[in-house]
Design goal:
By secondary structure, this protein is mainly α. It has 18 helices and no strands.
Length: 388
């Protein structure tokens, strides 16, 4: 299998995917530990919410700046800087003696995360060959569901068994591993050197509606992650998330390959249909196996839709704006996640969790409508023209 991956994907893609997995796992590892650390320092539940929200807002506020800096200094150097700062910040949590100190470290960590993940996504878009762009981007995308399972399940288990100290130490080690994965990127000319042509805009016009569609899709994903198990009455969270993540990993690569062959729009819009079916099954599930099937169906659709939309967005811009396109998509994901998860919580309080999860189909259908509109204004071809 390893030999097959090396033959199919360039070393830079494999290393960027591994680095993304390590860094996202580091972020997920520390999340179960953060509330316990704050409570041990005398913090309140409100202060926990403040610290978490401050990190999210920091990530959103800095997303669009990294493509400009990476164009000026080179993506490889920013990857190592973001990963290195993140590793140091995570290792310092155990030395924090007050809630304000944890808040400051959370802001630094969120800035490092925003830098690393935004630049890494732009780097993958930069090195992906046009004829296999969706497949390469889809392969890179498997790092997210894998990191979600490893980080939250293993991290939560470590916190329960050994306390929050080992979780922060492991997170710092994983962030350092991400830096090591990116060290060879300084030997890739297009990632090491500043861009000859700087991006003309931070918000490429051709990507704006696709960013809104991605916000809907990823926001719904957050709603499923946080509320899906409760809606289905699932006690075995490991089985639930394993089915979800494995289906998404499969569809990321397979869906990307299909999008390269048959077009980004057909695969993306089909993915939204599969997501909707999975959501409805999840909302109506009265047995654990049905809930796992619904989660798997949702993950299957999301992986295909995300691969198609992301590759489509990169196709719509020239080479200098690829980093900006990825930054805008990630900003849309941040906003969609915050808004839709918050809204799902409100609906859960008012109508119950079953209704809230079923209603998550509405943003998915809205994303599908946006994709149809984009296809009408500019059909999405299979691959980027080499002259573009």
């Amino acid at each position: 299998m390893t030999t097959s991956l090396v033959r199919r994907f360039a070393p830079a893609v494999l290393l960027l995917t591994a680095g993304s997995f390590c860094f996202q796992s580091a972020i997920n590892f520390q999340m179960p530990a953060l509330p316990r650390l704050l409570f041990s320092l005398g913090g309140s539940a409100t202060q926990v919410g403040l610290v978490v929200t401050a990190g999210s807002l920091t990530a959103m506020a800095t997303r669009l700046g990294w493509p400009v800096l990476s164009a000026r200094f080179g993506q490889a150097w920013l990857l190592m800087a973001g990963g290195g700062v993140g590793a140091v910040a995570m290792s310092l949590y155990l030395l924090a003696g007050s809630v304000p100190a944890v808040l400051a470290l959370r802001i630094v960590t969120a800035t490092a995360m925003s830098c690393f993940m935004t630049v890494a996504a732009g780097a993958v878009a930069q090195v992906a060959p046009a004829e296999r762009r969706a497949e390469v981007i889809g392969f890179y995308g498997i790092s997210s569901p894998m990191a979600l399972v490893v980080g939250t399940v293993v991290g939560g288990t470590l916190v329960s068994l050994r306390g929050f100290g080992i979780a922060f130490g492991t997170a710092a080690g994983l962030a350092l591993a991400a830096v090591l994965c990116c060290l060879p990127m300084v030997r890739v000319p297009e990632l090491r050197s500043p861009q000859a042509t700087r991006p003309r805009t931070l918000i490429p016009p051709g990507v704006r509606r696709l960013a809104v569609a991605m916000a809907c899709l990823v926001g719904v994903n957050g709603g499923v992650v946080y509320f899906g198990p409760s809606a289905a009455g699932v006690d075995n969270l490991g089985l639930f998330f394993a089915g979800y993540a494995l289906a998404m990993v499969l569809s990321r690569v397979v869906g990307g390959r299909l999008a390269d062959r048959h077009g980004y729009f057909p695969v993306a819009v089909t993915g939204t249909g599969v997501m909707t079916a999975g959501l409805l099954l999840l909302g109506l599930a009265d047995a654990p196996w049905l809930a796992v099937a619904g989660a798997a169906g949702f993950g299957l659709g999301l992986g295909a839709a995300a691969s198609g939309v992301t590759a489509w967005a990169v196709h719509r811009v020239g080479a200098p704006e690829r980093g900006a396109a990825m930054g805008l998509l990630l900003l849309g994901m941040d906003i969609g996640l915050s808004v839709i998860v918050f809204g799902t919580g409100l609906v859960t309080d008012g109508l119950g969790v079953d209704a809230a999860v079923s209603l998550l189909a509405v943003p998915v259908l809205a994303a599908a409508a946006i994709l149809v509109q984009c296809a009408r204004t500019e059909p999405a071809p299979v691959a980027l023209d080499s002259a573009r």
